[in-house]
Specification:
alpha/beta; Aspartate Aminotransferase, domain 1; Aspartate Aminotransferase, domain 2; 16 helices; globular
């Protein structure tokens, strides 16, 4: 694409979304930056959506989009799936409340289903998000091992808290040696303590990772890893198998962050695909069918560190004179195991068990069609990913194995492509991955490929 032509997508975007801009100007008077989550913002301003149905989103200007963001993969059944809506309505009517504040039957029903799908999960706890699930997994690992350092991989995201918000998207100048990455804080307001206590590893490089882990093994409680980085860069099978053996040898717990990959590679996630049992697992996003939920589960002896005990409750004022709260791991949350959300999750699983094969067939058709269109124009692009998530990477590199490899991509071209596609009714947040739902079918594929063909001619 000629340099002078780049940016035309954003110009037309502004012409098509004036009501979003008008609304955004009001939103910044209410929320910093006009949004309540940084991830929802993109320049020059985010589209303000008014409603969604099936595979589609509709904005304030009446523009219709095929939705490939799907709330970052959470909506694996699309918007407003009728069976999920019915399940939530029936729970409310049958139970007479949307919150018990006590244990209830759906906690066990959902839990048993998760245990069937994820055999590594012997016991589990519910949380309200994937971020909370990884947070609990790390606390469990530290409590169980008595060690306070953790290791994560460069380019991997596990939530917005200090302990893991390091080296997610560092500049290559700050990141240091690719075989010995530096720990780089990713937010203002972070304590530098975590740059020293969160050890950074290179993904898909077992030899280098092994050297680092052996150095810190006596201080490391756990390694947390996205088996599919960002949801679209897979671990090599030999790397994942080697990592499992290494953690067992060094007595370091292995945590799988399957928030993005839950139900996306298959019903058993990445651990089923790689045939590996991690010590702890964090689930989120698709597991709730669009409702806020997280699950932390794993080995019985590790999970039982959180067993509640008499006289060991941080909120039990009657024991304040001789409290033993520090003798157990604290985990709580008013909305943990929310009955309406669990009803949605149980029905989501039921639908997926019928639909997941078709979803994965749909995404393969779409990826093949996109690759063919670019190949016909002699443009180097990879449709990278497994299961029902993938990303478009403009690069001449033969293989993308980690964060460093990804930096070879032409992000400027990808951003222009995304805005041009938005203008043609194909939506994902610019530079983000594509997710597919059960609501996407042949009609969506045909419309998407037509839009791609039209945009590629301009590129």
């Amino acid at each position: 694409m000629a340099i002078s032509e780049r940016g035309m997508g954003i110009k037309r975007f502004a012409e098509k979304t004036p009501k979003s801009l008008e609304f955004y100007k009001e939103a910044i008077k209410v929320m910093p930056g006009g949004t309540t989550a940084n991830i929802k913002f993109f320049a020059p301003y985010p589209i303000i959506m008014e409603k969604g149905k099936g595979s589609r989103l509709y904005d304030l200007d009446g523009n219709e989009y095929i939705d490939y963001l799907l709330s970052y993969g959470a909506l694996i059944l699309g918007h407003g799936h009728p069976r999920v809506l019915q399940a939530v309505q029936e729970q409310l009517i049958d139970d007479g409340t949307y919150l018990f504040g006590t244990p209830h039957r759906l906690e066990v029903e959902m839990g048993r289903k998760i245990q069937q799908l994820y055999p590594s999960i012997e016991l589990l706890r519910y949380t309200n998000s994937g971020t909370e699930a990884t947070l609990l997994a790390i606390r469990l690992a530290c409590a169980y091992t008595g060690k306070n350092k953790i290791a994560k991989f460069e380019g991997h995201y596990h939530g917005g808290y200090d302990q893991v918000l390091v080296s997610v998207n560092p500049s290559l100048e700050e990141a240091g040696n690719p075989h010995q990455p530096k720990s780089v804080a990713e937010s203002k307001g972070m304590d530098h303590y975590h740059e020293e206590h969160t050890i950074i590893l290179p993904f898909n490089d077992l030899d280098a990772a092994s050297d680092i882990l052996r150095k810190w093994k006596d201080e490391l409680a756990a390694i947390i890893v996205e088996p599919i980085q960002g949801g679209f860069i897979p671990a090599e099978r030999s790397f994942m198998e080697g990592l499992r053996k290494l953690t067992e040898e060094l007595d370091i717990l292995l945590i799988f962050d399957e928030v993005k990959t839950c139900f996306r590679l298959g019903m058993g996630g990445a651990q089923e695909y790689y045939n590996i049992k991690p010590d702890l697992t964090a689930l989120g996003k698709a597991v709730g069918g669009g409702y806020p939920i997280g699950i932390t589960g794993g080995r019985k002896n590790v999970m039982e560190v959180s067993l509640p005990k008499a006289a060991s409750d941080v909120f039990d004022n009657s024991q304040s004179k001789n409290s033993k709260a520090r003798d157990v791991l604290f985990h709580s949350g008013t909305y943990n195991g929310h009955p309406s959300i669990l009803a949605a999750g149980i029905e989501t699983i039921a639908v997926l068990e019928e639909e997941i094969s078709r979803i994965n067939e749909t995404v393969e058709k779409l990826k093949t069609g996109i690759s063919k269109l670019f190949s016909q124009r002699g443009m180097a692009v990879q449709t990278l990913g497994l299961g029902s998530i993938f990303n478009l990477i403009f690069t001449e590199k033969d293989q993308i194995l980690n964060y460093r490899d990804l930096q070879s991509a032409d992000f400027e071209l990808r951003r222009e492509l995304d805005f041009q596609l938005i203008n043609e009714g194909i939506y994902t947040k610019p530079l983000n991955r594509y997710s597919i739902s059960s609501a996407h079918g042949q009609a969506e594929i045909d419309q998407t490929l037509d839009a791609f063909e039209k945009v590629i001619r301009k590129l």
